[in-house]
Amino acid sequence: MKIATYNVNGVNGRLPVLLRWLQETQPDIVCLQELKAPQEKFPEQAIIDAGYNAIWHGQKSWNGVAILAKGLEIKETRRGLPGDPEDLHSRYIEAEVGGITVGGLYLPNGNPAPGPKFDYKLAWFERLTKHAANLLASGKPVILTGDYNVMPTEKDVYKPERWVEDALFRPETRAAFKKLVDQGWTDALRKLNPDETIYTFWDYFRNAYGRNAGLRIDHFLLSPGLVGRLKAAGVDKNVRGWEKTSDHAPVWIALD
After folding, report:
1. Model's pTM, two decimal places?
2. In which residues is Mg(2+) bound (predicted)?
3. Which end of the chain has fewer CB atoms within 10 angstroms, the N or the C?
4. Taking Cα atoms as reference points, which of 254, 239, 217 lies closest to residue 16?
């Protein structure tokens, strides 16, 4: 089973790229982030025509998350994280697919930091961590994947000294990610590639992709029961080089 995550940076504007990638790689389950489309403007028919079922949590102009599945039923279990009824951002969606609980997330960016946006990021992280603990306690196989907007270590960022004050790399952010992982989750890409330089995002500016000046901010966290089934993991880096593409590349894992 191949499971992927992809921050599409606008699902309608990037639809040709998304459909081409789906057709070429044929993942079984896909989590999308940054749809930037209201609920009624999600391109459902195009996704169905590509062979996928879909659920989505849209929002006008910003955010938005979705789960797609090829030939598998998607049983939605949650949209939005618990813990803050005032939070209207479309950043989390969860479903049971193929015997696995899949949580698709788009964690806040948090810049500028310090400030209200950074406070919101850390509060959202805390809510995610509490919910993740409950998911682990269920004993079910769980994947938490998406754009975490965190570089966990210096190995995950090109020229880390330039990022020390950025919300994606500040000590508080990295500590929050470590606290989450330390519950018992496994970082799938690092599990299989402990020493490699892996990036999942390259800015549009300063030829970042051409220079491979990237960041690893899209992650797969696996519950203990899935780690033994993990057979492969990687980044479809070439997709970042396509015309009118997202600034993220798709990231994937393969499970037995």
Report:
1. 0.98
2. 7, 34, 147, 149, 247-248
3. C
4. 239
